[in-house]
Structures are given as C-alpha cells and as structure tokens.
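Is this the right way to post structure tokens for a design question? Let me know if I should format differently. Anyway, here goes:
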C-alpha cells in the first residue's frame, strides 16, 4: 500500500513537471534591442529615401497587403512629396514569439505626435521583417 502511494506521488510529480512544458514559451527579451535597431534602420532608410534599404527590411508578405517601399515613402513624405520628416519617435514595442507591433509617430522637426504609425513585424528565419504598416492604428490585439 505504501509502495502504491509513493508510485502515485511520483507519477503526479512527473505529470505536473511535464504538464507545464506544454505552455507557450515567453518571448525573449533579447528581441527588444533587435526591434529597436530595426526601427532605427527603417528611420535612416526613410530619411535617405533609399528604396533598396527599405526593401531590405520588408517581409515578402507585405506585398500581399499591397504595400512596398514606395508606399511607405509616400505615406511618410506625402503623395506630392511635401511632408517634412525628421524621425520615427515616441515608440512602444509589443511582441510575442512571432509578431511584434511598434506604435510610433512620423515626426517633423517640431516632433508633433499628430501622425501615428503602426508597424507590424513578423519573425521569420531569425529575422524581424516589416509585414505591414498602418496610419493611426494603435491596436495590439494581433499579438
């Protein structure tokens, strides 16, 4: 009888240990500096109006939503290329293991926060690539 109780306790312990392994792994904090660097690289590519540099930061899937480097530059600088651009500022980063959302503002030299921008990144093959961008949408329910 005592042997059966010990066996049951051992089995319960093993099940509880391995039962916790089914939970989704928390995202690594190591992704934060990488996402910050991606935002900075995107900002610098936009400042330089370098389509090739912007393209290198985009996921192929961005084409599925009808976006590309040209549409991003048009969004930032305006359809007639007359909007001033200084930086992407006041950002917040939300992420899980596969998707990241960066909410920021397209700012001119006065650093006004009247042009919100939502950037959605996807983690593919050890790279965070821009999958979609939206104006004024700060919803993070996609995570």
């Amino acid at each position: 009888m005592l042997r059966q109780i010990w066996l049951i306790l051992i089995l319960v312990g093993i099940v509880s240990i391995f039962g916790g392994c089914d939970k989704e792994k928390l995202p690594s904090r190591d992704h934060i500096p990488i996402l910050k660097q991606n935002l900075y690289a995107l900002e610098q590519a936009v400042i330089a109006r370098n389509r090739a540099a912007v393209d290198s930061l985009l996921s192929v899937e961005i084409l599925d939503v009808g976006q590309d480097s040209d549409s991003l530059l048009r969004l930032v600088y305006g359809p007639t290329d007359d909007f001033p651009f200084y930086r992407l500022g006041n950002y917040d980063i939300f992420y899980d293991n596969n998707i990241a959302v960066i909410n920021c503002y397209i700012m001119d030299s006065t650093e006004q926060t009247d042009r919100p921008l939502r950037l959605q990144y996807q983690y593919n093959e050890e790279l965070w690539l821009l999958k979609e961008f939206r104006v004024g949408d700060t919803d993070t329910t996609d995570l």
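Format looks fine. Someone answered above. Worth noting: Residues 121 and 130 are 4 Å apart (CA to CA). The beta strands are 87-95, 99-107, 116-124, 127-135.
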